[in-house]
């Protein structure tokens, strides 16, 4: 038996209608099978790329988190378990004694409270001063505005260590050493904050400000009622960035404070090392208590931080 379809094509004049229909059906089935094969290959490629990215992200996360996780593990580890010939990654007998000893050897709670007060006031102060300065650079017209803004931006290239002596002499001349004023006042504004808020404000049309002025809205009311509610992303980014920087300050608090009741938590960690330089577990217990607040603030505020930093770059 020979296949009547074999050797015939759709355009063959002698091909019967049933043969043509059979060829069309066969062609459609082949196309469907080919499309399904291509789709499966595309899905497999996407899954392979996604799996590769996930594995790379997991590897990077482990590299970044491994020191922190080991620090946390050592903080709960008795000193006798750390200095052994075995490599102990996890404590065999977890204990809170290192944390208790940290509070017993230094006034760590007082240091933490001081750091919270200083960081919170600096954060609020920078949000207020930077938003006001950015408003002036964005909506007000005055002579030398662009030149003054460039001068403010140029201060970002000056390291803090270059001005620390002059700031110390100024605060000392005021008689404010070893006070909250000395810890807070030099950091109540920043060029970074002014730049960030200005980039947000520049995305708003000038007609918005002009319409508000025609309605009798003052500049402060315009900032408070219109600009600030519309720039929550910038405020969140600025708050997280400023709080973490203020929390991690070490050199300036060390220079202007002289008693335990005014020192901040970063100085307290250095004091733990001087109390018992051989007790690594004690010092790492203090480190854990210091980094936990900043990590929590970053975790809960990272979306605002990233959104604020990138949204401000849309227009400038």
SSE order and pairing:
Blueprint (H helix, E strand, L loop, with lengths): L16 H59 L3 H4 L14 H9 L2 H32 L5 H10 L9 H11 L5 H5 L6 H11 L4 H9 L4 H12 L1 H16 L3 H6 L8 H11 L4 H32 L5
Helix pairs in contact: 1-14, 3-14, 4-8, 4-11, 4-13, 11-14, 13-14
Flag low-confidence runs.
Answer: 1-10
User: What is the annotated CATH architecture of the largest domain?
Assistant: Orthogonal Bundle
Secondary-structure content class: mainly alpha
Name of the CATH superfamily of the largest domain: MetI-like
Structural features, described:
By secondary structure, the chain is mostly helical. It has 2 domains: 17-75; 98-311, MetI-like fold. Helices cover 72% and strands 0% of the residues. The chain is built from 14 helices and no strands. The model is unreliable at 1-10 (pLDDT under 50).
What's the gist of this structure?
Helix 1 crosses helix 14 and helix 4 packs antiparallel against helix 13. The chain starts with 16 loop residues before the first helix and ends in a 5-residue tail after the last helix.
């Amino acid at each position: 038996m020979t296949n009547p379809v074999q050797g015939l094509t759709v355009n063959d004049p002698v091909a019967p209608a049933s043969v043509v229909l059979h060829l069309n059906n066969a062609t459609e089935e082949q196309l469907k099978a080919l499309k399904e094969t291509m789709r499966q290959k595309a899905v497999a490629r996407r899954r392979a790329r996604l799996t590769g990215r996930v594995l790379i992200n997991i590897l990077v996360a482990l590299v970044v988190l491994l020191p922190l996780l080991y620090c946390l593990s050592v903080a709960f580890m008795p000193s006798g378990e750390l200095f052994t010939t075995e490599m102990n990654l996890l404590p065999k007998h977890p204990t809170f004694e290192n944390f208790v000893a940290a509070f017993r050897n230094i006034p760590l709670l007082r240091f933490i409270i001081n750091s919270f007060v200083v960081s919170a006031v600096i954060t609020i102060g920078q949000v207020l001063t930077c938003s006001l300065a950015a408003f002036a650079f964005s909506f007000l017209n005055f002579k030398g505005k662009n030149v003054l803004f460039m001068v403010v931006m140029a201060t970002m290239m000056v390291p803090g260590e270059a001005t620390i002596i002059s700031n110390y002499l100024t605060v000392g001349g005021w008689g404010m050493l070893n006070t909250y004023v000395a810890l807070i006042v030099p950091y109540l504004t920043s060029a970074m904050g002014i730049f960030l808020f200005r980039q947000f404000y520049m995305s708003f049309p000038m007609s918005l400000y002009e319409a508000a002025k025609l309605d009798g809205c003052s500049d402060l009311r315009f900032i408070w009622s219109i600009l600030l509610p519309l720039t929550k992303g910038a405020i969140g980014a600025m708050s997280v960035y400023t709080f973490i920087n203020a929390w991690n300050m070490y050199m300036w608090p060390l220079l202007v404070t002289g008693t335990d009741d005014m020192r901040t938590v970063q100085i307290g960690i250095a004091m733990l090392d001087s109390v018992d330089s051989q007790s690594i577990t004690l010092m790492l217990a203090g480190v854990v208590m210091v980094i936990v607040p900043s990590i929590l603030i970053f975790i809960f505020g990272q979306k605002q931080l990233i959104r604020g930093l990138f949204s401000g770059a849309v227009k400038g």
